[in-house]
Amino acid sequence: MALKATIYKAELSIADMDRNYYETHQLTLARHPSETDERMMVRLVAFAIHANEALTFTKGLFDVEEPDLWHKDLTGAIELSIEVGQPDEKVILKACGRSEHVYVYSYAATSHIWWKALANKVERCKNLTVVDLDAAATEQLGKMAQRTMQFQCTIQDGQIWLTDGTETVEITREVLKAER
């Protein structure tokens, strides 16, 4: 018998001073049985970084044909594709072929090893941005996961702060590859 997703609800208030974006989103996250709390929370942070009314969570781990998040235009074309973790080159190349912009958010302590092995294989992807999130910070985020969550996210000068009112986590980003 197949295991079902665990449903998480999150109210996410975003104050992104870098983009002048201020909004509160009511989100439903389906956590795949094989997904960790940390990975799910990184998906939430990726949403906060790129938030807009058209950005949605996809089937993700349930469907290998879809990224973790995407933003489609009114014609159904994928404007933004977001992958979380350490996807292989085939996944990245396929996303770059289907999407206008592709972001990969890696977050493990081994991300630099993964990137060193992959960098030359995806160098030709002009629409790809790869960002490494601080592993210690994402580990803290995983501990903040609850079935019902309320967060405030502040983004300023490239820095990200996520708080649940009790704990605050500062998430630093290192761009490993920028879109050109």
From TrEMBL:
InterPro entries in the cross-refs: Restrct_endonuc-II-like (IPR011335), YaeQ (IPR009822), YaeQ_sf (IPR038590)
Superkingdom of the organism of origin: Bacteria
Alphabetized SMART domains for the sequence: YaeQ
Family annotation (PANTHER family): SUCROSE PHOSPHORYLASE
Protein name: YaeQ family protein
